[in-house]
Each structure stands twice: as structure tokens, then as C-alpha cells.
Amino acid sequence: MYPPLVLQSPYLLAPMAGFTTSGVRRLLLGQGAGAASTGLVDAEGLARQSPGSLRRAAREAAPGPQILQLFANQPEILGQAAALAAPLGFQGVELNLGCPAAPLVARGCGGALLGRWPELRALLKVLREASPLPAGIKCRSGQLPGDGQFLILHELAAEAGLDWFCLHPRSLSGAYVEQPDWSLVDRLPAGGPRLWAVGDLRTAAEARAALAAHPGLEAVLIGRAALTLPWIFRLCRGEVAPAPREGAALLAALLRSLVADLDWQEARRLLPGLLGHLGLPADEAAAFRLADRRRLPEWIDLLERQLIAGPPPAITGNPFLR
Ligand SMILES: Cc1cc2nc3c(=O)[nH]c(=O)nc-3n(C[C@H](O)[C@H](O)[C@H](O)COP(=O)(O)O)c2cc1C
User: Fold this and answer.
1) Ligand 1: lining residues by beta carbon, under 6 Å
2) How many angstroms separate the Cα of 164 from the Cα of each of 107, 128, 200, 258?
3) 15 CA distance to ligand 1 centroid (A)?
4) Which of 24, 27, 115, 262: CA 20 to 30 A from 233?
5) Is 176 found in the same domain as 101?
């Protein structure tokens, strides 16, 4: 039998497709994240061991638990993929029920499953039974603001015996425009799966306040802020902010992990947005220059200059969503 999921701290790294690669998870677990999830992995691709899905499900040794996040809408395929989580070295497995991205929704996965309760019941049963690892779901509040679908999902998760339930308390239709409604978290009954929540926690102070304000929560997740402030998990634990040079070295390490872990097309699609946001040159050749270890000091100098001028602004919306 596998051990329960033991969180290193109540501040976890949120799954972010394209960004929470194996190297980034290792880096942020090293900074004190309590656990770290992969981005979305296509269960079908993983079940047939496609190179892209295997790369997204890659895991390297890291100082903390790692969760494989899958998307699927067929129980049999979900079962095959979830069964691979333990052999791949993960400590937990999660089904995504909240992604509003068009390609996923068109395939009837992620957020498209909300409201399809019999299908969901079957999927959650398989998720629980196919893997010996602790398992959970991550979802939005519902299809529309105020529809309360998360309460039904929570009931189904409890009925299936899942270990955790993670709520991003804004609706699918609200994308990133609707404000997260953290009061929804307090409507989740105790006594079922462990409760986690995520949404717009931009600083360590906000993360600590969210946890303190919602006593039913075991943990909160931090997504976008971890991409611009990779030391945020240290701050959550009460440590002081790193000096600009150390912060710059951490950011450079995060960017270089992305270049190492992504394929060329993904890097070209995702990196310029993040580089531009950090005030760095975001041209097509930037990924090449990042990959060149000899140029690392240049990147650190550039980042240090930015950090001396002030912390990077928060990422608003999901500028990477297509
Ligand atoms: C670039 C990006 C990719 C994301 N990919 C995923 C994903 O693969 N799976 C998932 O459940 N949520 C995904 N999310 C949602 C985040 O996990 C999180 O719920 C959301 O960003 C709110 O948290 P934040 O305000 O701390 O970023 C993604 C968000 C962003 C910005």
C-alpha cells in the first residue's frame, strides 16, 4: 500500500500546462512548495505512451511530493493512464475538471465534464481504483457563476473516496475575468476529501491570509505568482526575500528549466510571454540564448537589474491560454 500524500507545507504549486515541467517542479519544491503538480497530461496520449505525453509526465527526484494531473473522458483510458502514475514515480494522481481551454473542451474533457454526472461518477470510481496512489480532482465552481456545481462534484469525490478536492472558485464561463469567490470554499462540507483552493494569490501575504481565513482548507495553491516570484514558497513559510542577485539566479534557473523541458514549438509559444513579462528580451532566438550555459551570467545580470528596480508585476489573466 502506498503512503498518504504528506504535504511539505500548506502552500502548493498549482498545475500549469507548459510551465510546471519536471525541472520547474524540482526547483519550486526546493523553494519549499508543499507539493507540485504536472500540467495537464492527456490520459490517452500517456496510455499509448506518446512521446509528448511522456515528456509532460516526466518526473525527476525532487524534495517533495509530485502529482500527475490527467485529463480524460473515457474511464478505461483514464484507468490505464492513472495506473502509470506510481510506476512513473508520482506520489498522487489528479483528474482535471476545470480547464476551460477550447481544445480540451472540444474533446469533452476538463470543464466540459461538469454537469455530466453519471459519466463523472464512473470516471471518479476508476480514478480511485486504477491507482494505489492518493487521488483527487481539481475543478472550477461550475459552468456559470452561482450554479453551485462544485458542491455536486464534491459529493461525487467524497462518494468515490478521493483524497483531495481542489477548488478554483470561479466559473468556467468566467475564464480569468470573473473574480474568484473565496467564500465558496466555506460551503464545502468537512469530513470528506482534504480541501485545497487556488485563485489569484499574488503574494505570500495573500496566500497566508487565505489559509487563515478559511479554516476548512488544508492547503492553498499558487500558480502564476510562482512563475515571477519562485521564492514565494519561502516567504509563505516566513523566510525573508532573497537579495536581487539570488532572486535573479532563481528566475534564470526557472527559465532555463523551461527551455530544457519543453519541446521547441512549446518553448516558442510560451516563453516570449513570460520573458516579456519579466522585462527581458522576448525575441525568437531568446530560447537559444537561454539554453547556452555560457550566457547565464548575462541573464542573471539582466534579471538582477529588473529586480533592483522592483518585483515583477503580477501576471493577470492567462496570457498563455490558446
Ligand atoms: C499558464 C497556465 C496554465 C495552467 N494550466 C493548468 C493545468 O494544466 N491544469 C489545471 O488544473 N489548471 C491549470 N491552470 C490553472 C491554475 O492551476 C490555477 O488554478 C489558476 O491559474 C489560478 O491560480 P493563480 O491565480 O495562482 O494562477 C493554468 C493556469 C495558467 C496561468
Assistant:
1) 14-17, 19, 39-40, 69, 96, 98-99, 138, 168, 198-201, 222-225, 318, 320
2) 25, 11, 20, 28
3) 6
4) 262
5) yes
